[in-house]
Amino acid sequence: MDAAHREAEGPRQYVRYALEGHVATITYDRPERLNAIDGAMRTQINAAFARFRDDEDAWVAIVTGAGRAFCAGADLRSETGNPAGDFPGTFWEKPTVNSFESGWEIFKPVIAAVNGHCLGYGLTLVTWCDFVLASDRATFGYPEVTVGIPTIVGALRLPQRMRWHDAMELLLTGERIDAERALQIGLAGRVVPHDDLMTEARALADRLCRAAPLAVRATKEMAVRGADLPRTEAIRFGETMRKVVQATEDAAEGAAAAAERRPPVWRGR
């Protein structure tokens, strides 16, 4: 395909977003570069997660990659923008939370379906997901130290998910581990045959959609925020959240469905 034809079709889509029922699937789609992130792809990744966050019909997300990689991290050979994204502001006053993997607040459940190589930014993304399903072909690693740069957000998040020793081994050696090792150290929740990965991820997403979506989001927010609050303040915050959710239409529907012995019909309001 020549350049004029490509331009007529518009910019290439490196990230696909598909909504089926209440489940959004976000697919990194730059397989020829192992889904490594350049500036153009970063813009599309952020747009996809913002769309999921803001879409009232999207209750659960599955994130995966096209081809043989989940995401191989930053594309160090690309000259197309900053893979970390654009940072507005002056030299010092720049935002540090500018993407989902760096800490955007999204309290809807997110499932990582890790289909292959999961490195750098890809692994940092996984540390922000609530569920990690790994293909038996998946590999995980933080290679940054082997090319002379530090891992930052990953270094904050990884020790919260596993033993210090295991986290430091990944962060400070830059070596990769396979799916079984990831399962052993608690990085992956389940390892499944490669060809079953998306079926298993969708089955988990469907199970999550059976619960009241606003109650799910409030519960996740409680788990996230409560970890940084003193116990009394955390409980106080949680009881306030409970009062808010109990006033929703879904809470009334849940009580009615229980009384009438029928499945509830959630509307997310």
* Sheet with most strands: strand arrangement: 1-2-3-5-7-10
Give the total of beta strands.
10
Q: How helical, in percent, are the residues?
A: 40-55%
- One letter per element, helices H and strands E, the order comes to HEEHEEEEHEEHHEHEHHHH
Topology:
Elements lengths: L2 H7 L5 E6 L2 E6 L10 H16 L5 E6 L3 E3 L38 E5 L2 E3 L1 H7 L3 E5 L3 E3 L11 H9 L2 H10 L2 E3 H6 L5 E3 L4 H13 L3 H14 L4 H16 L2 H12 L9
Parallel strand pairs: 2-3, 3-5, 4-6, 5-7, 6-8, 7-10
Antiparallel strand pairs: 1-2, 8-9
Walk me through this protein's architecture.
The protein has helices at residues 3-9, 39-54, 121-127, 153-161, 164-173, 179-184, 197-209, 213-226, 231-246, 249-260, and strands at 15-20, 23-28, 60-65, 69-71, 110-114, 117-119, 131-135, 139-141, 176-178, 190-192. By secondary structure, it is α/β, with parallel strands linked by helices. A 6-stranded mixed beta sheet has the order 1-2-3-5-7-10, sandwiched between helices. Strands 4-6-8-9 form a 4-stranded mixed beta sheet. Helix 2 links the parallel strand 2 (23-28) and strand 3 (60-65). The chain is globular. It starts with a helix and ends in a 9-residue tail after the last helix. Mean pLDDT is 92; it is low at 1-7.
